[in-house]
């Protein structure tokens, strides 16, 4: 075991760690399911992470045998590294917050998910309180980080109901791009999906995860979004029969395909446990499940 954090490598020559036993501390903690990499980077900035007795800095490296402290608690990276990657497709209803604790006391999604003995569920991005539809949650923070990374430009498809007059010129502006307070944005696709009069449905696609992006794009054209439903994230669609506040777990082949799409592979021992049925799930993979009470 080393006595201090390992220095960060030259970022210009290193893109991703390939060694499963060591890496940048934010990546190791994310892989262990302690949170998304972005969240862990904030904890490091806030001075909440220590490696072998010294406060960690962004980019410091650690290994499975290093003594890592997070929020005053020692983290067993060896034990947490053996936790299998799981991904749930959760049908979030409107009125539920994507947070662990809501200061206003509103319902939160994490109380609807199965309890984990080790690790924690990490949401892949967010849906605002008024938006419903597909939300991915995973035990693998590194997987969540890669799926959310803006450089991957993963498509998100939404069904949106608009109140107000929508002209062809307006739709063309939304596709060409409009200025927003945090920079220009546009829809990759906009397709009519029914409705008449002042209430019309459209299917739209964006490749960014900026806060309330779909709503803000429409509102920039002086029309109102009266309903918003996420239908798809990348190649994963909201199952047609998946009711609000229920979830379906990705089956092994679906999970493997998702991980390969972002350059990840599941550890061989975890894959073997899945095939032999040694990984205990409280719900059977691939089946629609009601949340725990």
Summarize the structure.
It contains eight helices and 18 strands. With 293 residues, it is of the alpha+beta class.
Number of strands: 18
- Tell me what portion of residues adopts beta-strand conformation: 25-35%
What pattern of helices and strands is seen along the backbone? EHHEEEEEHEEEHEHEEEEHEEEHHE
The class by helix and strand makeup works out as alpha+beta
Task: Explain what this protein looks like in three dimensions.
- With about 290 residues, the chain is of the alpha+beta class.
- It folds into 3 domains: about 20-80, Structural Genomics Hypothetical 15.5 Kd Protein In mrcA-pckA Intergenic Region, Chain A (Roll); about 85-150 and about 235-265, Pseudouridine synthase (2-Layer Sandwich); about 155-235, Pseudouridine synthase.
- The protein has 8 helices and 18 strands.
- The chain has helices spanning about 25-30, 35-45, 75-80, 140-150, 170-175, 215-220, 250-260, 270-275; strands at about 20-25, 50, 55, 60-65, 70, 75, 85-90, 120-125, 130-140, 155-165, 180, 185, 190-195, 200-205, 225-235, 235, 245-250, 290.
- Strands 7, 8, 9, 10, 13, 14, 15, 16, 17 and 18 form a 10-stranded mixed sheet that branches. Strands 3-2-5-6 form a 4-stranded antiparallel sheet, with no helix packed on it. It has a two-stranded antiparallel sheet with strand order 1-4.
- Strand 8 and strand 9 (about 130-140) form a beta hairpin.
- Helix 1 (about 25-30) packs across helix 2 (about 35-45) and helix 1 packs across helix 4.
């Amino acid at each position: 075991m080393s006595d201090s954090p390992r220095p960060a490598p030259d970022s210009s020559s290193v893109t991703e760690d390939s060694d499963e036993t060591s890496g940048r501390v934010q990546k190791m903690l994310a892989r262990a399911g302690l949170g998304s990499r972005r969240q862990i980077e904030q904890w490091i900035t806030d001075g909440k992470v220590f490696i072998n007795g010294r406060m960690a800095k962004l980019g410091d490296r650690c290994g499975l045998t290093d003594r890592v402290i997070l929020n005053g608690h020692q983290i067993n990276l060896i034990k947490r590294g053996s936790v299998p990657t799981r991904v749930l497709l959760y049908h979030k209803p409107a009125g539920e917050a994507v947070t662990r604790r809501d200061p206003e006391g509103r319902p939160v999604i994490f109380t609807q998910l199965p309890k984990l003995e080790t690790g924690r569920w990490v949401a892949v991005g967010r849906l605002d309180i008024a938006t419903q539809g597909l939300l991915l949650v995973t035990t693998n923070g590194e997987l969540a980080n890669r799926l959310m990374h803006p450089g991957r430009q993963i498509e998100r498809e939404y069904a949106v109901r608009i109140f107000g007059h929508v002209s062809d010129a307006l739709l063309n502006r939304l596709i060409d791009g409009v200025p927003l307070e945090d920079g220009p944005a546009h829809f990759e696709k906009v397709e009519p999906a029914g409705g008449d009069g002042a209430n019309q449905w459209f299917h739209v696609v964006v490749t960014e995860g900026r806060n309330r992006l779909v709503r803000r794009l429409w509102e920039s054209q002086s029309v109102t979004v009266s309903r918003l439903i996420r239908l798809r994230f990348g190649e994963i669609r909201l199952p047609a029969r998946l009711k609000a506040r229920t979830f379906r777990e990705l089956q092994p082949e679906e999970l493997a395909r998702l991980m390969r799409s972002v350059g990840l592979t599941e550890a061989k021992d975890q894959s073997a446990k899945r095939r032999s049925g040694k990984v205990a799930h409280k719900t059977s993979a691939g089946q629609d499940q009601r949340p725990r009470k």
